[in-house]
Amino acid sequence: MARRVDGRKANELRPVVFDVDIAPSATGSALISMGRTKVICAVSIEDDVPVWMKRQKVSGGWLTAEYSMLPYSTTERSRREAAVGKISGRTQEIQRLIGRALRAVTDLEALGPRTMWIDCDVLQADGGTRTASITGAWVAARRACDRLLRAGALTAQPMREAVAAVSVGLVGGGALLDLNYEEDAAAAVDMNVVMTASGRFVEVQGTAEEDPFSRADLDALTALAAGGIKKLIAAQRAAIRV
Q1: What is the pTM of this model?
Q2: Is the domain defined by 16-240 classed in CATH 3.30.230.70?
Q3: What's the angle, vertex CA 234, arms to CA 231 and CA 235, rounded to 5?
């Protein structure tokens, strides 16, 4: 396999580090670093549910996510969306993706009549911020639920299994795992894959930037992603035991 600018093999993740309990006021939190991409994921618990759940008499709880890139997360300062007065379409898409990914592995009945808010704030962006957010968010959510269990607020663990995500792509004619910004910008095909610990897919987002890609390319990319996600889930499991 060809080596890359940062010296990694094609099927190698960037160094993955979790710093847990990074936000003391949150119920659970983790700073995930994947190479130079760094995201703080923090969970807050609200003892209430959305109005639509009350109106429709839906039992259990709810989980939702918010995502933002801090102005200094990129080489050139970006304006805060609050200052602009409008959330971008990209931000809305990523927030929904994070929420879907975490709800896919959460027993909302076991969560009870409360809302789990997951805030993902990008401190530094070098590609893969949405996938790092999902991977870090699960660690923060699991640690939050563990804390609620210890306090007696929950009687069962709502997080049924782990979920993680990684990017893959076709760059220079080869399949690469965990793209940094430079690789992502040069990719002929860019794909984000979200999978559970049991090997099931939650979401696959794949786009051909140039020529359409084949079924063989799709199979190769998802297999590459699955191998990376297994390693990410192992890192997640180590982080929740800290």
Answers
A1: 0.95
A2: yes
A3: 90
